[in-house]
Amino acid sequence: MTLTQELQVVLFKPQGSIDLQDGKALSEKIAEIVPQPHQLWVIDLAAVDFMDSSGLVSLVKAITSARQNSCRLVLCNVQTPVRLILELTQLDSVFEIFDTYEDILNGVNNDKLSLAS
User: Fold this and answer.
1) Cα–Cα distance for residue pair 58/37, rounded to 1 Å
2) In sequence order, what are the residues at sequence separation of 6 or more whose Cβ sits closer than 8 angstroms to the Cβ of residue 63?
């Protein structure tokens, strides 16, 4: 018997700064997702140059929601100002952070970091 499972990726690409207003918008977009077990949720922060505590709250809510729904959430393309905030709050140890989107897909496919349980 052969079991094949295609990778289900949900990609979020916020832009600008993630503050109170944009953090709420990100949380709302994430809440709109109909979670499927073993989905991969990717937040691509390439276009985000600033994040405040409201932005951090939206990221924590996102990872909590992902875990509650048996999904995996990762960050990629984290710019230096945002990376510093994640490091200062020690949230860099909570989130899986990849340099690029391609690194995520390569990691899932090549390193057998599969989403299947």
Assistant:
1) 21
2) 73, 94, 95
**DSSP code of residue 12:** E
Contact 116, 36 (CB under 8 A): no
Domain boundaries, the chain: 9-110
Q: What is the pLDDT of residue 13?
A: 94
**Domain 9-110 top-level CATH class:** alpha beta
What confidence score (pLDDT) does residue 100 get?
96
Q: What are 73-105's pLDDT values in tens digits?
A: 999 999 999 999 999 999 999 999 999 999 998
Q: Quote the DSSP letter at residue 93.
A: G
CA distance 51 to 20: 9
Distances (CA, A) of 86 to 35, 55, 79, 99: 25, 11, 11, 14
pLDDT digit string, tens, across residues 36-48: 888 999 999 999 9
